Amino acid sequence: MKFLHNMFDRMEPSFTKGGKHEKYYAIFEMFDTFLRQPSSTTYSASHVRDGIDLKRIMITVWLCTFPAMFWGMYNIGHQALTAIATLGLQPEGWRTVITSMAGYNPDSIWASFVYGAMQFLPIYIVTFAVGILCEIIFAVVRGHEVNEGFFVTQCCLRFVYHQIFLYGKLL
């Protein structure tokens, strides 16, 4: 960890005001505070406060959505494999390369999870990549830090997008 600390300390002057890469300070700051605790934490106040910053709280909220995401992957796979088995369909497309390794048995937890993950993960990756790209562009243009709420917003968007892509409607 000392290596990362020293690396960020050496790079910081080129990203601060007047530095060669001043324009990209928001991106530098995003990685810096994600990998290291910021130097501006609360030490004393008139009421009880924690030394944790907002970015850490939002990352924790983001991580807390993972159980719902994993359950959703399993449930999507189970429902789809049940329909495939009932209707006697044959899965096709690029996803079958991976899903065929786990099988298509709807009673198998692993097969259901893998099939659901192959439906969910492409949407999640695209949502995350486009969202963080937009957030970084706006932060650089406006000269602000990357917003901590991005992770949480992106979690909500992926569930909505998945509903729209699967069923063509919200409800």
Topology:
Elements: H1 2-15, H2 25-35, H3 54-64, H4 66-87, H5 96-102, H6 109-142, H7 150-167
Helix pairs in contact: 1-2, 3-7, 4-6, 6-7
**Number of helical regions:** 7
Helix share, percent: 55-70%
What structural category arises from helix and sheet content? Answer: mainly alpha
Largest sheet: none
Query: Domains counted in the coordinates: how many?
Result: 2
Low-confidence spans: pLDDT under 50, at least 5 residues?
none
Q: Give average pLDDT, whole number.
A: 80
Q: In percent terms, what proportion of residues is strand? A: under 5%
Distance between the termini: 47 Å
Order of helices and strands: HHHHHHH
Any idea what the shape is? elongated
- Could you tell me the radius of gyration in angstroms? 21 Å
Number of DSSP-assigned strands: 0
Question: Can you describe what's shown?
Answer:
This protein is mainly alpha-helical and 171 residues long. It is built from seven helices and no strands. The radius of gyration is 21 Å and the shape is elongated.
Task: List descriptors.
mainly alpha, single chain, elongated, 2 domains, 7 helices, 171 residues
